[in-house]
Amino acid sequence: xxxxxxxxxxxxxxxxxxxxxxxxxxxxxxxxxxxxxxxxxxxxxxxxxxxxxxxxxxxxxxxxxxxxxxxxxxxxxxxxxxxxxxxxxxxxxxxxxxxxxxxxxxxxxxxxxxxxxxxxxxxxxxxxxxxxxxxxxxxxxxxxxxxxxxxxxxxxxxxxxxxxxxxxxxxxxxxxxxxxxxxxxxxxxxxxxxxxxxxxxxxxxxxxxxxxxxxxxxxxxxxxxxxxxxxxxxxxxxxxxxxxxxxxxxxxxxxxxxxxxxxxxxxxxxxxxxxxxxxxxxxxxxxxxxxxxxxxxxxxxxxxxxxxxxxxxxxxxxxxxxxxxxxxxxxxxxxxxxxxxxxxxxxxxxxxxxxxxxxxxxxxxxxxxxxxxxxxxxxxxxxxxxxxxxxxxxxxxxxxxxxxxxxxxxxxxxxxxxxxxxxxxxxxxxxxxxxxxxxxxxxxxxxxxxxxxx
Length: 454
Prior knowledge:
Elements: H1 2-28, E1 56-59, E2 62-65, E3 68-70, E4 72-76, H2 84-92, H3 94-99, E5 104-110, H4 111-114, H5 127-138, E6 142-148, H6 159-164, H7 195-210, E7 220-221, H8 238-250, H9 268-271, H10 274-299, E8 305-310, H11 314-321, H12 324-329, E9 336-340, E10 343-344, E11 349-350, H13 352-365, E12 370-373, E13 377-378, H14 387-399, E14 405-409, H15 430-436, H16 439-453
Parallel strand pairs: 4-5, 4-14, 5-6, 6-7, 7-8, 8-9, 9-12, 13-14
Antiparallel strand pairs: 1-2, 2-3, 10-11
Helix pairs in contact: 2-5, 7-10
């Protein structure tokens, strides 16, 4: 009996102690502790990803795999895709990128890397490029293909092209041939009005597409950042004059104020003439549309096409593309619009006018465009940004409606390269570390903002 009473007393004492401890614990633990980014774990790496391009679909501004929405983490490696040694090295590192949750890799092919004599026929084998596409696809990732066929901002026209078309130079308002002084590369700038240039580029795009398995390409991108230039008024070549006169005739435009003057320098009244800039915008879109159709001639009419929309400093915007609304309105072949700049660097705030223009045309014409960004982050422009500023930029893309994905450039491992996002050992530099380390959190925010919009 004593033992029973003792046991009962001990049990009662333990219960009281546990209750007191529990109450004390509730008193010492703060309620509603806010979660941190680290509290959202990164998703596990899928050991057996779905590999089937028949299950890919882009609609309603999103990418779907087997009818399930997937937010894309797009990596763009800036390497020479005609170099088999470089390609093999990159293939050996695909798992490293996959472990950082990249599910899409866009391969930006520079014209001069493949076609040295500039006739539109690749001189280098396309087998290494095709090998890389197959390797990316086999990993359950989505290969994309873009081209760099212009000569502003880093591209280079093959030197042999100039021997074939010496009159293809872009001409500025003073009547002088243009080089890329705006971005500092010094490359010779071609006139997009020159028929020899466009036909050669279309030949190159088609030959590039013929050499790969286009079914495994999620989307094709036309030349990076299509524009004229922002700091120099162009182009006033004979090719431009011919195309402009043809356009005026087709549209029954006869007023003398909008005629192109026959002598240089071109007066400011013509450089800013609304009719001239309407034409420039429409022709810029024509150039992009023709590139898209060159892809589709090989890859099929249902091939997805991405186009950069460059909307930077407003005082330069007319120089860059004439009338931006005209440009967007005449983009008839695009499925994906990649906004650049998405962030307005001079005042460190969202580039609202860029998104507003895209949505104005998208809504007015009921275009089923996926809206995303060109170079959401790169290793150079954002290197001095604090994490709070990087967060504001990513949040802004989602607020603006981005549901397709983010693009990061360059996903290469080079500690000494300003543009590379990773060090030699593939450890992330600060800009991409803020994305990689908290990828689980960012996927949470994508879904959270999507649900708020409903």
